[in-house]
Write a structure and sequence with these properties.
Layout (H helix, E strand, L loop, with lengths): L6 H7 L5 E14 L2 E7 L7 E6 L17 E10 L7 E12 L15 H5 L9 H23 L3 E2 L5 E2 L11 E2 L22 E3 L4 H11 L1 E9 L12 E10 L3 H22 L1 H10 L4 H10 L3 E4 H11 L15 H12 L3 E4 L21 E6 L3 E8 L4 H10 L8 H8 L5 E7 H9 L20
Parallel strand pairs: 3-5, 6-10, 12-13
Antiparallel strand pairs: 1-2, 1-4, 2-3, 4-5, 7-9, 8-9, 10-11, 11-16, 13-14, 14-15, 15-16
Helix pairs in contact: 3-5, 3-6, 3-12, 5-7
């Protein structure tokens, strides 16, 4: 059997006159004057390839003329120049083999635009659509680019645990992991007889464990799934999502911001270079002007504001925000987008947030009111990255942990990192789905992850 070729490779190489074999799924079939025109796609690119099936094929009447959207095919034939508008090559079929039929009466995807809400009910089929197929390719390209960026920057990848006994954010929004039946969770120490002998949960962040390796290998990163048991049904939140979290020893807040901005611009540049066809689709149908916005991010240095300056800008704006703006409260998505879209006209890095609204591990600034934190805000999304210089001073860290109600004995290992060779260090977290959402222009984060997990919904 001849080796099959990806449609993307055929369309890019366009070696007219060569014998090719493709596998894929039928998008449409059209019959005309003893010929059948098949549009086939294999997911390797946005474009379909047209297959011309002639009546002389042995199975033309019995199978080819009965094909419908969704059928899977194997086609062997000759690549020829196409006279049709919008395509340069097509395949003149020598054989068309039906690998799997799709009943046209029950197959739910037809040649029309379906709403994203409807497609979420078809998690097993929605990757076959143009938009969700394009998202999958962009997501894959960005994932690979993340590893390439950190490798080129001298970072070591660390696989941090999915099951942990440490709540990094201290917000109590962890999914509990237990091997016990609900009725067994009794008494003053309900998890004492559990699998780990103590309460454990799905990680909300790999940061604390990444710090361990940063303080032995200098530059590390982790990239994996994280979980939040937050009952939020918004277009920006998921219960399961992926995080990119680098940690750098001998690094302060300024160095942290430089790495984060360089990474974002590198990833956007990669998408523009490698996913141009898919981005053009998004630009045309999903988010007008997307490519121009991404080009601006790639080419223009990010603006900088302190939190205090940002609050002043918001107070002066006169905008009727849904959430009041005042110093000491966290910025909401509407505030973040205003700063990007109306003040900076592009990405902006906001620094030095109030100590009271940030986690215990962020380094306390002189004066004690703010911490050495930074958020990167981007148009259309708001917060894309959150990071900080970590608190390396043992006494200050222990006091902040105690004030947050954390058990210092349980976090003794984290304090040990400050007892034994502590150094200034910093890091940040990039929500990978937020990145894909920003690059694709998708309005709802549920469209940029293959299998969204949200309150009351976990298909497949």
């Amino acid at each position: 059997m001849m080796a099959t070729t990806r449609i993307a490779d055929i369309l890019s190489q366009q070696q007219v006159g060569s014998e090719v074999e493709i596998n894929g799924w039928l998008r449409t079939r059209r019959d005309s004057g003893g010929l059948t025109f098949l549009e086939v796609n294999d997911g390797s690119c946005l474009a379909n390839i047209q297959v011309i099936a002639e009546a002389e094929l042995a199975n033309y009447q019995t199978e080819v003329c009965k094909l419908s959207t969704g059928c899977s095919l194997s086609v062997r034939g000759l690549l020829v120049a196409s006279p049709a508008k919008g395509q340069t090559v097509e395949i003149r079929a020598e054989s068309v083999t039906v690998l799997g039929w799709a009943d046209p009466e029950t197959y739910p995807l037809q040649k029309k635009r379906h709403s994203f809400e409807f497609l979420r009910s078809l998690a097993h089929l929605r990757p076959r659509t143009n938009a969700l197929g394009a998202v999958a390719r962009v997501r894959s390209a960005l994932s690979f680019a993340i590893h390439r960026f950190f490798r080129e920057q001298g970072f070591l990848q660390v696989h941090t645990p999915v099951i942990t006994t440490s709540d990094c954010e201290g917000a109590g929004e962890m999914f509990t992991v237990t091997a016990l039946e609900p009725g067994d969770l009794q008494g003053s120490d309900p998890f004492g007889n559990d699998f780990f002998g103590r309460r454990a949960g799905l990680t909300v962040s790999g940061q604390l464990q990444a710090e361990i390796y940063a303080l032995s290998h200098s530059r590390v990163y982790t990239f994996g799934p994280t979980f939040r048991a937050e009952n939020s049904n918004t277009s920006r939140h998921l219960a399961e999502f992926w995080m990119v979290e680098p940690e750098m020893a001998f690094c302060d807040l300024r160095g942290d911001m430089e790495v984060a901005e360089t990474m974002v611009r590198f990833l956007v540049a990669t998408a523009l270079d490698e996913c141009s066809e898919d981005l053009a689709l998004f630009d045309q149908y999903i988010a007008k002007g997307l490519i121009d916005r991404l080009t601006l991010v790639r080419d223009k240095p990010f603006a900088h504001l302190t939190y205090t300056e940002a609050v002043a800008e918001l107070e002066r704006s006169g905008q009727p925000f849904d959430f009041p703006v005042q110093w000491g409260t966290d910025l909401q998505a509407e505030h973040e987008r205003y700063l990007c879209e109306q003040v900076a006209h592009g990405p902006v890095i906001v620094t030095n947030y109030p100590e009271s609204i940030k986690p215990f591990y962020m380094r306390l600034d002189d004066g004690g009111r703010t911490v050495a934190a930074m958020d990167i805000l981007v148009p259309g999304i708001g917060e894309l990255i959150g990071g900080s210089q970590r608190e390396e001073r043992l006494e200050v860290l222990a006091a902040r942990m105690a004030a947050a109600g954390l058990d210092l004995e349980q976090y003794g290992w984290y304090l040990d990192l400050r007892r034994f060779g502590s150094v200034p260090h910093a890091g940040f977290g990039l929500g990978f789905e937020r990145l894909v959402q920003f690059v694709s222009g998708m309005q709802n984060i549920r469209e940029v992850i293959p299998f969204p997990r949200t309150p009351g919904s976990a298909p497949c």
